[in-house]
Amino acid sequence: MKVVKRWKRLLLALLGLLLLSQSPFVYRRFQLRSLRAKIQELNSSRVVNNGDAYADYKGVIHVHSQLGGHSTGSLADIIDAARQNDLSFVVMTEHPSATIDTAEMTLKGFQAGVLFINGNEASTAASDRFLVLPGTATARSAPTRSTQDFITEEKAEGRLMFLAYPQEFRSWETADGYDGIEVYNLYTNARRINPLVMFFDGLWSYGAYADLLFTRFYERPTDSLKRWDDLSASKQRKLVALAGNDAHANVGIHLGDAGGKKYLGVLLDPYSRSFQIVRTHALLEKDKALSADTLLEAIKSGHCYIAFDLLADSTGFRFTAQSGTSSVIMGDSITLADGGVRLSVNAPIKSRIVLFRNGQPLEEAPEALSKEFTAHERGVYRVEVYLDSLGNSFRSRPWIISNPIYVE
Ligand SMILES: [Zn+2]
């Protein structure tokens, strides 16, 4: 009799402990519910009032399909996810293959109303990685070429070269001539997940708030931003910043048979979710139609910005500069005149707008829909925008990262 009682007490104690250990995750589910409500409120408060000459196209860059290996996603999945997210463009970046031309075989041109660019991701002899746009069968020989040769040779063929995975890049001192840097990579950020915490968060929140679980690990890419800022300032040349979704649709758990049939699966990074989280917005003059040429030209010019659209739809954001009779947008240069250059920022939602010069925060405007700054010195000026109203942790994690205006 006594033995049974002792067992009961032990079981109750264990049950109590189990419940106690789960309480933080229950609370975190509650937090995500309130975050969802705040996001909905922000999105319904959007004001877009740009009477300017530009149209804003939202898309994603750095997407893999099963063509390049270590991804399970099909081309049809990618088209569906782009349509679900109402994207205007998707930049594919297939790994090259020794036997097939993955750039030729992946999505390109308009598919179901979405523009696809058939790029490659390739790694040089020094293991430096680049996004090559558009892609090419010659990307397969990248591992035998030096980083500089790879850049120079592909640039000579008219392709855009973006330095990818900056935290693993080795040739900072020597490599030059590339178009820009992938300053944020969703896959790299996701690898910093604490698996145990994510497991319990998932248990409680995956069903209702799978997309918002991103906010549990999202970090400002501070090191990559510093690299980019320092290089832009020291090289005195344009370096375009991009965000890479690095979407594979291969992070997850499933049970299946040898024939590839899946019986039970939980996919943590389906394309539809990745495409919702972070995007690159390109600005095209309204009289230009969206095409592979006009999109790549806008990206090359830095007429684009990075936005974590999961937090709120950023469409309509602008960063422009005026001096005398000249007027430019992000990515462009402008000459410093007497009285300075007027820098204007417009955001579709009240937010904190922070102006940086050569990587240093210079001025900020709290809770503003628009803000004007005056630049009195030459330098590389860019903007980060924060949604403080989403909660304390969002004070250090940006919603929007603009490309710079170069005051010369
Ligand atoms: Zn990749």
Plain-language structure description:
With 408 residues, this protein is an alpha+beta fold. The chain has a domain at 54-313: TIM Barrel, CATH 3.20.20. The protein is built from nine helices and 20 strands. The chain has helices at 2-44, 75-84, 102-105, 147-156, 186-190, 195-209, 222-235, 271-277, 292-300; strands spanning 54-63, 89-94, 109-111, 114-123, 129-133, 160-164, 180-185, 240-244, 252-256, 262-267, 279-285, 304-307, 318-323, 326-329, 333-334, 341-357, 360-375, 379-386, 400-402, 405-407. The strands form two sheets. It has an 18-stranded mixed sheet that branches. Strand 1, helix 2 and strand 2 (89-94) form a beta-alpha-beta unit. Helix 1 (2-44) packs across helix 6 (195-209) and helix 2 (75-84) packs across helix 8 (271-277). The longest helix has 43 residues, at 2-44. It is globular and about 90 Å long. It starts with a helix and ends with a strand. Bound molecules: zinc ion (ZN). Zinc ion (ZN) is lined by residues 62, 64, 121, 246. The site of zinc ion has 4 residues, from loops.
